[in-house]
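Q: Here's a chain of 291 amino acids. Please give me its 3D structure as tokens.
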Amino acid sequence: TDVVLFSGCGGLTDKYPINVLMWASIVRCASKLKIPVYISGVGIGPLHKFYLVPLVKYICHTVNFFSVRDKSCSYMWAKCNLKRDNFCWVPDDAAFYDGYESNKVDLKGKLNIGVSLMPSLFKDYIAIDQVAEKFSNIAKLNNDIVWYLVSVTHEDYDLLKRVHSRVKESVLLPLMSPSATKNAISQLDVMISARYHGCIFALSQQIPVIALFYEEYWERKNQGALSMFGLENLTFHIDVLKGDEFDYILNKIIKERQQLINVIRKNKESLKNKSFFIHNLIIKEHANNLG
């Protein structure tokens, strides 16, 4: 190959140590062969396992250039731990990729709210059913709301199918390609997502998001996405769904929806110039040399 590009391969984090080992081995091989390596939109951290830190440092020091997908946690880690100035922060590629497929959503409510949840959020079926009951109760109090259950990945479909069976005010969207899923989300009013790409798909199309997490990895990942678009205060632990606080948060977002859209729009404009940064860098530095 002429160039190696990593993009969308998972983060350099304790959660995926095998990924770190894989990246380190490929970077080492490429370095020996004098093939340039670039990384686009990676997340770094959390890193608590002592043996992974030197590997991540090795990867970051050896590659020609890399970008991180958030300017808070990942960028600050790189700034504090690396000696080379071979990195910057750039929005995840998925933020500005629309693809060629669409999916027309049959909107049934005045407030159409997307929901993207994943199995690892819940310890058992009882916990899932409690969340379903919460959504059902909110819809009974607000007749305008319809929940649209969105599988950002196929792994979530069975979980959302169970929620759908217990919430009559819900619509279960079929499994779709990423670009069709992103297009479906663009037609909704608000998005509730524990998935990073559920957040990115919504924010990049000016849809306000409530981000959920259950551990540090997802907290950093989802908060990083929201912070780039100016909504860093809308990230909450999954336990928020157990009490009345969630009702207040959702009502506040519905009430302030247009202001939030304006904030997202303003931040999106400033992000556009950075969206293809690393790809343009590859072309600028190497295309003319490739003949």
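Q: Can you summarize the key feature?
A: The mean pLDDT is 92.
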